[in-house]
Amino acid sequence: MATEELVHDRYVKTQQAATVTEKYRGPQWYMGTIGQSANDRIGSVPTEQLWGYLASHGSSLGAATLIIIEHEEPVVQEEPVAFQTGNVESANFLMVAKGRLEGVYATLRSSETGLTAGAVAEELKQLLRYRTQDEVEVYPGYWVSSTEYERRFKGVDLEHFRNVLPFELFKAYVRTMGSIHGWGIEPKHRYRGKD
Amino acid sequence: MPIVHRRGHQTGEPIDSPAYVDANFLVCYAVGSQQAPNAQIVARNVMGDLLAQGVTILISLVTVEEAWWATLHELYCRHIWQPPSPDEPCPFNRRIAKQSWHQLMHYRNDLKWIVECLQELRDKGADIRFVPEVEKSFDVCQNAPDYMETHSLLSADALHLSLALSQATTLITFDVHDFQSVIDPSRDLTILLLPS
């Protein structure tokens, strides 16, 4: 099954469970995965770690792997998205609205395996055990993991620039600095022009 | 005022406008450098000052071309290269790039994003412009080979210098020898050499 067909197939299955978006905003998202085998399941981790994982293990992920990324922002478009990143050519990314991850996961997983709702919930709980709480709000509404914060903003006098830059320009400054990770995401899937 | 070299930069220190920025500056700002982590901190603070002071930021297609190559280098080292030992320096050249071209082209959207970052900043009020204007390109190209000879610069660096002399009062670059020897009492330019 071609990647797009697969995404579409999964998308159709999830329409009742979640709103899907192609908008990509990067490091403040989390993900879960569904695969054909236990090896496909890589847990739920900060996106920074996800991309590191994909860079090193991506080639072992097959077309059947579906990576669900939880979206922090309001939904802007109801489309699934598949894109390349690092070594990953065939993994499928499903953007879901914040708070919908569990519902999407449960729907997909139970439809594939016939697991009971309780079993799926327990499985998801295990997957989510990596979710970190140590996020930093760089400006209202823009959160990054502490790892991401360290990598992009360490040593930068953000407090000073917050005070001297117009707020819209400050936001663009924050969002653009260190924003290229090698994720291979098309510019239109990034945040350009949107807050 | 002749060509002046200024080493280092403290946050808040004035920068003369317009300022022409070279590729390493752009890459350190948007991508970062695993091999020179201090350089990315410097570049990000200097970019903040450029924005805060309303300095006109000038870039050129030479800047972009070099930034693309440097970005491919950085992403190759981050994501593709398998070091034989932890301290092994990451090699990158045309031959290696060609061998890894299929993988490197996964990053083509990141290359687009470098320019999009500048557009994003410009959309929010930063004064960022491409140079040269078409009618000045002939002069810029005519002068560059002379700078290659008089200042021992490679072609891209000579073009950077020619562009800066043509249209900027500041040239921002990292202190990596390229521009250290550029001296010309008859021309006005501050070369801001940032520590790498």
Summary?
The complex is a heterodimer of chains A (195) and B (196). Chain A has 195 residues and is α+β, with helices and mostly antiparallel strands. Helix content of chain A is 37%, strand content 13%.
General description of the model:
The complex is a heterodimer of chains A (195) and B (196). Chain A has seven helices and five strands, in the order αβαββααββααα. The radius of gyration of chain A is 17 Å and the shape is elongated. In chain A, α3 crosses α4. Chain A is 37% helix and 13% strand. In chain A, the strands form two sheets. In chain A, strands 1-2-3 form a three-stranded mixed beta sheet. Chain A has a two-stranded antiparallel sheet with strand order 4-5. With 195 residues, chain A is an alpha+beta fold. Chain B has 196 residues and is an alpha/beta fold. Helices cover 51% and strands 13% of the residues of chain B. The interface between A and B is large, with 40 and 38 residues.
SSE layout and pairing:
The complex is a heterodimer of chains A (195) and B (196).
Chain A: H1 3-14, E1 30-34, H2 47-57, E2 66-71, E3 92-97, H3 101-113, H4 117-127, E4 135-139, E5 142-145, H5 146-153, H6 158-164, H7 167-176
Chain B: E1 3-7, E2 19-21, H1 23-30, H2 37-52, E3 57-59, H3 61-80, H4 94-99, H5 101-104, H6 108-123, E4 128-130, H7 134-150, H8 155-167, E5 170-174, E6 189-194
Parallel strand pairs in B: 1-6, 2-3, 2-5, 3-4, 5-6
Helix pairs in contact in B: 1-2, 1-3, 3-6, 7-8
